[in-house]
Design goal:
47% of the residues lie in helices and 17% in strands. The protein contains twelve helices and 13 strands. Helix 4 links the parallel strand 4 and strand 5. Helix 3 packs parallel to helix 4, helix 6 packs parallel to helix 7 and helix 8 crosses helix 9. It is elongated. The protein starts with a helix and ends in a 5-residue tail after the last helix.
């Protein structure tokens, strides 16, 4: 383990528990994290917790901003507003480069340092002038999941895409199909984000396609209603089920044998590390030479104890 990661590990172990807050006030630099997540998506609570804890530890002010409905045009305006407020740095997702690249480049051109997290790619982060990328390469994660499922005998699947307007979400489904060696075709559905609608659409697809081998969901927003759909259809534990990301119901599903695995992209690190990196960069001029892949890591029933303890908070 190199010195940088030893420092990160020591800092994390020494940290006291801190519940996520929208704003953590402190003396020193000010950093703004802008995400594409709607208010309804609880998965981002872990991002907020990582942000708040890093702000406390580094003695900086941190702010979390997002479009309440997940509208990317609204997010672009939020990035512009954040830049206009004159922060020392902006951490942002790159959910759709066509919509967000302009405001991000404008922030960089105005002298604000930017780190891209969660969505987008290292190449896209470089193109907009960001310092680095911290996140999970989504296509690669989907591809790795597809290879794993293929090894388990899966040949067809349903991808429940609850955020189809984000290219990163589609990359997960496409990577999974490519890992299986099959066409994506109509195996991906636009489920929307309403839990009842997701449940109904999953049931409708599986009733119309009873030979489907597997279900892939992209996070708690789609996984939780899918669990209910499979329970109602009598398929829970009988159909192969993998998901991206973690949450309390996903962890319980893994423990119960309903879900085979969850892909943990470690969102805590996606918020925590950029604050640590930026503060050190602005204070001492030091910057890691490479992008940081926070995932993918496959969580199965064999290693749930710590994951279950911190699910929805730090995992």
């Amino acid at each position: 383990m190199n010195a940088f990661w030893k420092t990160m590990a020591a800092t994390a172990v020494a940290a006291s528990a801190l519940m996520g807050a929208t704003v953590a006030q402190a003396e020193g630099e000010r950093y703004v994290l802008v995400s594409h997540a709607p208010d309804s998506d609880s998965w981002w609570n872990t991002i907020k917790n990582g942000l708040a804890l890093a702000g406390e530890q580094m003695g900086v002010t941190v702010e979390y901003r997002n479009p309440p409905t997940g509208d990317l045009a609204d997010m672009a305006r939020i990035i512009e507003q954040a830049a206009a407020s004159g922060p020392d740095g902006i951490i942002t997702t790159l959910a759709d480069p066509d919509v967000l690249s302009g405001p991000i480049r404008a922030a960089v051109d105005s002298g604000i340092d930017v780190i891209i997290i969660n969505s987008g790619t290292p190449d896209q982060a470089r193109e907009v002038g960001a310092l680095m990328y911290v996140g999970q390469p989504e296509y690669d994660a989907g591809y790795a999941a597809g290879l794993r499922a293929a090894g388990d005998g899966v040949g067809s699947f349903l991808c429940v895409n609850h955020y189809i307007s984000s290219p990163s979400s589609t990359e997960r489904c496409q990577g999974f199909a490519d890992g299986l060696g099959v066409d994506l075709g109509n195996q991906m559905i636009d489920s929307g984000q309403d839990p009842s609608e997701i449940q109904n659409r999953v049931m409708a697809y599986l009733n119309a396609n009873p030979d489907t081998d597997a279900v892939l969901t992209l996070g708690p927003t789609s996984a939780d209603p899918t669990i209910l759909a499979l329970e109602e259809m009598g398929l829970a534990g009988d159909i192969y089920f993998g998901t991206f990301d973690l949450g309390e119901n996903i962890v319980q599903g893994i423990r119960d044998g309903v879900i085979q695995w969850g892909i943990d992209q470690q969102p805590y690190l996606q918020a925590y590390l950029p604050i640590i990196v930026m503060a050190n960069y602005h204070r001492f001029g030091v910057l890691p030479g490479n992008n940081i892949n926070s995932g993918p890591g496959f969580v199965t029933a064999d290693g749930l104890e710590m994951v279950e303890q911190f699910a929805g908070e730090y995992r």
